């Protein structure tokens, strides 16, 4: 496939998603890679295709003593640089290609082998400097192209339909939009009605959200949307991540951060906060996966310039 946005930085995983000494397969721009983390917290990534008979290395296992990955077909071992390990020795030259990765604050980034065109967003560092990591949720491969999924994150009208029932949204008003090249800021007021007891029992956090949610969102094109929100239990920073797996599939997950959260509140509401965020991804993915082929719109809604701004960045890349 033709690579999507070559030279963009892609956040492909958080270290908490990998486990220890466990092979994980990720797909980026049509290529499969195997990625793993050792007991020291070091992360390695290789082309997932064994150079012997093309078995998927992600189906193999990690040899902890040698920090190698073993092919499931013939137990051939490769180190994190792609060098074959045999007869208690490592070859000098790699024979399978490593994926260049950058690990920053437990986030694993890659340019997928392309020359960087944008830096890793400073937005992530700003969140980490002020907030504490709560967890990852909503990891999913969405059956939809990257542009469609990205535009949903810049669409300030879909909350009125897609997330209406979850958050009891009665109105959504954008009060400010500040485009700054590949970065953007949006201020948004969401007005809510009361959740039913059944809805609160199912997900307790929705029962304590304020009636008017004054959210701030910041974007780092193309992969990152950060929602800054306040609730009685804590301030929340929700980092919504996207990257292109193939022409027709897009990976999504959310990194959740909080501050000013009492340990008791964290114990009571952690799972509920993560569940609500995961539901957002599930609802967004359903919306994308059920769309008919795109045609020229015959209706124009307020604030759609934000969505079209992102589309222009994509098409002008």
Could you characterize the architecture of this molecule?
There is one protein chain. With 317 residues, the chain is of the alpha+beta class. The chain has 2 domains: 10-110, Rieske Iron-sulfur Protein (3-layer Sandwich), CATH 2.102.10.10; 122-315, Naphthalene 1,2-dioxygenase Alpha Subunit, Chain A, domain 1, CATH 3.90.380. It has 6 helices and 18 strands. The chain has a 7-stranded antiparallel sheet. A hairpin with a 2-residue loop joins strand 10 and strand 11 (107-110). The radius of gyration is 21 Å and the shape is globular. The model has no long low-confidence stretch (mean pLDDT 93).
List strands and helices in order, with pairings.
Layout: E1 10-14, E2 24-28, E3 31-37, E4 43-47, E5 61-63, E6 68-70, E7 77-79, E8 84-86, E9 89-90, E10 102-104, E11 107-110, H1 122-130, E12 132-142, H2 146-153, H3 164-167, E13 169-180, E14 183-192, H4 197-202, E15 212-220, E16 224-231, E17 234-244, E18 250-259, H5 263-289, H6 304-315
Antiparallel strand pairs: 1-11, 2-3, 3-4, 5-6, 6-7, 7-8, 8-9, 10-11, 12-18, 13-14, 14-15, 15-16, 16-17, 17-18
């Amino acid at each position: 496939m033709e690579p999507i946005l070559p030279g963009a930085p892609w956040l492909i995983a958080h270290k908490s998603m990998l486990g220890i000494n466990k092979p994980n397969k990720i797909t980026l721009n049509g290529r499969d890679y195997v990625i793993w983390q050792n007991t020291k917290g070091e992360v390695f990534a290789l082309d997932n295709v064994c150079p012997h008979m093309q078995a998927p290395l992600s189906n193999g296992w990690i040899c902890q003593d040698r920090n190698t990955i073993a092919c499931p077909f013939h137990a051939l071992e490769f180190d994190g640089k792609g060098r074959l390990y045999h007869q208690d020795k490592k070859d000098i030259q790699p024979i399978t290609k490593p994926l260049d990765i950058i690990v920053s604050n437990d986030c694993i980034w890659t340019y997928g082998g392309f020359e960087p065109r944008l830096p890793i967003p400073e937005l992530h560092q700003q969140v980490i400097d002020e907030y504490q990591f709560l967890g990852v949720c909503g990891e999913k491969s969405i059956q939809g192209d990257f542009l469609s999924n990205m535009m949903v994150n810049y669409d300030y009208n879909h909350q009125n339909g897609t997330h209406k029932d979850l958050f009891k949204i009665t109105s959504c008003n954008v009060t400010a939009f500040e485009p700054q090249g590949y970065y953007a800021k949006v201020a948004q007021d969401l007005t809510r009605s009361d959740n039913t007891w059944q809805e609160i029992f199912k997900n307790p956090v929705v029962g304590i959200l304020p009636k008017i949610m004054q959210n701030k969102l910041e974007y780092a094109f193309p992969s990152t949307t950060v929602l800054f929100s306040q609730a009685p239990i804590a301030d929340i920073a929700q980092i919504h991540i996207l990257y292109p797996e193939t022409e027709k599939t897009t990976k999504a997950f959310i990194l959740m951060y909080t501050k000013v959260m009492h340990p008791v509140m964290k114990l009571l509401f952690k799972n509920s906060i993560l569940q609500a965020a995961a539901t957002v991804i599930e609802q967004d993915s359903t919306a994308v996966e059920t769309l008919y082929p795109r045609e020229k719109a015959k209706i124009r809604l307020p604030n759609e310039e934000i969505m079209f701004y992102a589309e222009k960045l994509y098409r002008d890349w």
